[in-house]
């Protein structure tokens, strides 16, 4: 069971950035933990166009005959039993297949309708089940359900492997394909069959789609004059809300800060950099490296919180932007990490609009912490590794992970067993 499933929270305000299903991680918005869409210019329409085998043969490997493409095209048009066959369907299907040949779950071609829906999800309200999904160990996996979402209430947990969606097997399915199947009209039902560690049999979970609301930042001063700042996603309103939490922390002269990133699946790179800046100042927060690409993103504000002892709470649902912040604070020694190993989403996607309204989201790089750690697929190890005691929390709402963080800040922490130090030194 995820930590977010156990928390009780006040009503949330609606924001319109993520599709929960997020479509991917971090993975949404002007930055896909990468560069803005405006940062890369497309080749004007018509300058590059495949008109036949002859126009591309010089660029192809010797054992590839592009004539086969047109043969398959024509045979599909002529022989498929349901007629007529749409040229547009074949065309967009071919482009999807082309990108799937990269064998990267985060590189996806969107046809015009899918691209339009994707951007609507980034800029308006949306209907869904309220869970971020990703690919882990080549399986369609729940990264984290959103607090109080239909997904959470139905019992989905981080790490659940989605085996089928309405009886359709997910093997080989991309995140975006899964999203298109899980989405639907408000009030309708989707049935997921999931596999979960500790369960011998597959579990069927029925979820009613609803309008999803998100409150990205909450904060509260708790016992011992310790500020607890919880970030559920890194989206459009996070920076302003986080800044308000920072101002209150400074005004109240808090003794310590607990930054709760548990079950936070990520969001906008710019926001992650902004949040980390409160501790690291103008130093490097994250870098990205790819083919002919190497960028370093530095902090953008003064280090207002650098002098306040800080602990960051993380778990297996902490991904992407959450990992960027946690990794930077751990690298510089501004915070201890408490909890469980993070998700391990360390790749960078670029989003490009195309002239016909379609779009390409493609992995262009991997990102690295300030000390050069690549956490893709491995995640970040906390300094103090401790699992949430679910039974204790359910009985009396005792959060042993938060209590451990509090003990660290107050200097009363005493290890009760084997702990894990930051081990991702690559």
UniProtKB/TrEMBL annotation:
Entries under InterPro entries matching the protein: ClpP/crotonase-like_dom_sf (IPR029045), CtpA/B_N (IPR055210), PDZ (IPR001478), PDZ_6 (IPR041489), PDZ_sf (IPR036034), Peptidase_S41A (IPR004447), Tail-specific_protease (IPR005151)
Q: Where is the signal peptide?
A: none
Entry's Gene Ontology cellular component terms:
outer membrane-bounded periplasmic space
Print the keywords alphabetically.
Answer: Hydrolase, Protease, Serine protease
- Pfam families in the record, alphabetically? CtpB_N-like, PDZ_6, Peptidase_S41
Query: Which BP terms does GO give this entry?
Result: proteolysis; signal transduction
Q: Which residues belong to any copy of the PDZ domain?
A: 129-183
Coiled coil located at which positions? none
The record's GO molecular-function terms, alphabetically, read: endopeptidase activity; serine-type peptidase activity
The family line of this record is:
Belongs to the peptidase S41A family.
Protein name (record) = PDZ domain-containing protein
Q: Which organism's genome codes for this protein?
A: Candidatus Uhrbacteria bacterium RIFCSPLOWO2_02_FULL_48_18
- The organism's taxonomic lineage, starting at the top: Bacteria, Candidatus Uhriibacteriota
């Amino acid at each position: 069971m995820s930590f977010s499933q156990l928390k009780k929270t006040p009503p949330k305000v609606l924001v319109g950035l993520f599709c929960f299903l997020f479509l991917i991680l971090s993975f949404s918005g002007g930055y896909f933990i990468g560069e803005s869409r405006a940062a890369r210019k497309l080749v004007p329409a018509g300058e590059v166009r495949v008109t036949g085998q002859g126009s591309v043969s010089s660029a192809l490997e010797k054992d590839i005959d592009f004539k086969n493409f047109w043969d398959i095209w024509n045979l599909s048009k002529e022989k498929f039993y349901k007629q007529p066959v749409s040229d547009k369907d074949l065309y967009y299907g071919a482009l999807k297949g082309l990108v799937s040949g990269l064998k990267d779950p985060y590189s996806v071609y969107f046809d015009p309708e899918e691209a339009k829906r994707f951007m609507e999800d980034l800029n308006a309200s949306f209907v869904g089940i309220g869970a971020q999904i990703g690919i882990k160990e080549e399986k369609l996996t729940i990264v984290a359900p959103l607090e109080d979402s239909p997904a959470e209430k139905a019992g989905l947990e981080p790490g659940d492997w989605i085996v089928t969606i309405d009886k359709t097997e997910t093997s080989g399915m991309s995140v975006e394909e899964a999203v298109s199947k899980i989405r639907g009209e408000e009030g309708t039902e989707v049935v997921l069959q999931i596999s979960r560690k500790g369960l011998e049999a597959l579990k069927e979970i029925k979820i009613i789609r609803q309008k999803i609301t998100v409150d990205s930042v909450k904060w509260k001063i708790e016992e011992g004059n310790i500020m607890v700042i919880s970030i559920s996603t890194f989206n459009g309103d996070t920076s302003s809300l986080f800044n308000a939490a920072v101002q209150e922390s400074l005004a109240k002269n808090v003794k310590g800060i607990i930054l709760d990133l548990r079950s936070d699946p990520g969001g906008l790179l710019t926001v992650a950099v902004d949040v980390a800046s409160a501790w690291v100042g103008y130093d490097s927060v994250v870098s990205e490296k790819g083919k002919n690409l190497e960028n370093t993103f530095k902090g953008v504000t003064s280090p207002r919180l650098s002098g306040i002892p800080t602990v960051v709470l993380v778990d297996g649902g902490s991904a992407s932007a959450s990992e960027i912040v946690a990794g930077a604070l751990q690298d510089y020694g501004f915070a201890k990490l408490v909890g469980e190993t993070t998700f391990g989403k360390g790749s960078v996607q670029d989003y490009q609009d195309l002239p016909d309204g379609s779009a390409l989201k493609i992995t262009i790089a991997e990102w690295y912490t300030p000390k050069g750690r690549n956490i893709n697929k491995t995640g970040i190890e906390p300094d103090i590794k401790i699992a949430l005691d679910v039974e204790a929390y359910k009985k009396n709402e005792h959060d042993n992970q938060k209590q451990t963080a509090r003990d660290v800040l107050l200097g009363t922490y005493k290890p009760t067993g084997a702990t894990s130090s930051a081990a991702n030194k690559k």
